[in-house]
From TrEMBL:
<dbReference type="GO" id="GO:0003677">
    <property type="term" value="F:DNA binding"/>
</dbReference>
<keyword id="KW-0805">Transcription regulation</keyword>
<keyword id="KW-0862">Zinc</keyword>
<comment type="similarity">
    <text>Belongs to the krueppel C2H2-type zinc-finger protein family.</text>
</comment>
<keyword id="KW-0804">Transcription</keyword>
<keyword id="KW-0238">DNA-binding</keyword>
<keyword id="KW-0479">Metal-binding</keyword>
<dbReference type="Pfam" id="PF13465">
    <property type="entry name" value="zf-H2C2_2"/>
</dbReference>
<feature type="domain" description="C2H2-type">
    <location>
        <begin position="31"/>
        <end position="58"/>
    </location>
</feature>
<dbReference type="GO" id="GO:0008270">
    <property type="term" value="F:zinc ion binding"/>
</dbReference>
<feature type="domain" description="C2H2-type">
    <location>
        <begin position="171"/>
        <end position="198"/>
    </location>
</feature>
<dbReference type="Pfam" id="PF00096">
    <property type="entry name" value="zf-C2H2"/>
</dbReference>
<feature type="domain" description="C2H2-type">
    <location>
        <begin position="87"/>
        <end position="114"/>
    </location>
</feature>
<dbReference type="GO" id="GO:0005634">
    <property type="term" value="C:nucleus"/>
</dbReference>
<keyword id="KW-0863">Zinc-finger</keyword>
<feature type="region of interest" description="Disordered">
    <location>
        <begin position="1"/>
        <end position="25"/>
    </location>
</feature>
<dbReference type="GO" id="GO:0000981">
    <property type="term" value="F:DNA-binding transcription factor activity, RNA polymerase II-specific"/>
</dbReference>
Length: 256
């Protein structure tokens, strides 16, 4: 069947994309994909788009055999092998393989966050971060472990979880050779060697190696103002602001 006469909804047998005329725009006849009705201004653009439907990947890397639908994607991929990073940040001189990555990086300097959550109005610098965040509202966990069927909101979290099954610990401390399943665990561990405590209390200036310890510590300051005493003795119902005080109090019942 000739390409020009391919009916709407029917894929052409050839590798070229089907097109459906839909009138003219700017003096040129508009072309539409016969599968999804998306509009294009040129036959070549329509043909490239049609690979989304056929799965065709005609551009192959000669180094690792990975295939791509578009020549531009192959060109970008080849920079992984060559180490070429032609996109340079004018502020910090960090280099990137893709212009899009540089544009995203620049937002760390400008603090621009153009992607806003429509639910809670929280903003993000990249669209992928917004997509991950939205799952906290929807409860969606599309990444499932094939071993125990536990689900996760992010592919990276699933990858990390899988190491609990495989026992893989690819991140090794160069100081003591202890290994960890995640890079974040290694970074926290390294602070034991360096003495780094990047999380500081703004009230008393005490510092901590992890943010969770700082949050726990801040509650101790807050309770001096609120009078909150969340730890209750199960024996006499007396309440305490801190778990340590309750533990000490319980000994009076045991010794008595």
């Amino acid at each position: 069947m000739p390409l020009e006469s391919a009916p709407c909804g029917e894929m052409a047998a050839s590798s070229a994309a089907p097109r459906v005329p839909r009138g003219k725009r700017g003096g040129q006849q508009a072309l539409h994909c016969a599968v999804c009705e998306k509009e294009f201004r040129s036959k070549s653009a329509l043909q490239v788009h049609f690979r989304v439907h056929t799965g065709e990947m005609p551009f192959e890397c000669t180094l690792c055999d990975k295939k791509f639908a578009h020549n531009g994607n192959l060109t970008t991929h080849l920079r992984i092998h060559s180490g070429l990073k032609p996109f340079d940040c004018a502020i910090c001189e960090k280099r990137f393989t893709q212009g899009g990555n540089l544009r995203t990086h620049l937002r760390t300097h400008t603090e621009e966050k153009p992607f806003e959550c429509t639910v809670c109005k929280k903003s993000f610098s990249v669209s992928s971060a917004l997509r991950r965040h939205l799952r906290t509202h929807t409860g969606e966990k599309p990444f499932e472990c094939t071993v125990c069927h536990k689900s996760f909101t992010e592919g990276g979290k699933l990858k990390l979880h899988l190491r609990t099954h495989t026992g893989e610990k690819p991140f090794e401390c160069t100081v003591c050779q202890k290994s960890f399943s995640g890079s974040w665990s290694l970074r926290i561990h390294l602070r034991m060697h360096t003495g780094e405590k990047p999380f500081e209390c703004t009230v008393c200036h005490k510092s901590f190696t992890v943010s969770g310890n700082l949050r726990t510590h801040l509650r101790t300051h807050l309770r001096t103002h609120t009078g909150e005493k969340p730890f209750e003795c199960a024996v006499c119902k007396e309440k305490f602001a801190y778990a340590g005080f309750l533990k000490k109090h319980l000994r009076t019942h045991i010794s008595g």
